[in-house]
Amino acid sequence: MNFITNIWNHPKTSAAGLLIALASIAGVLSQQGITLGKAGTGTVVSLVTALATALLGLLAKDPETASQSAAAGKPASQQARLGAWMLIALLIPLPWMQGCTATGVAQDIVNWTPALQSAVATVDSTAALLAPADAPIFAAATQGFDAASNLLVAQAKAYLANPSASVLAQLQTQIVTLQQQVNAALLQAARIVDSSSQQHALAAIQAVGTIASSILALVASVSSKAAVAHMAAQTGVKLSMVRPYLNESRAAEIVAVHYGEPVALARMQVAQAEQAEISAGF
Question: Which of 43, 93, 125, 221 could serve as a FRET partner for 6 with CA atoms 20 to 30 Å apart?
Answer without folding.
Answer: 93
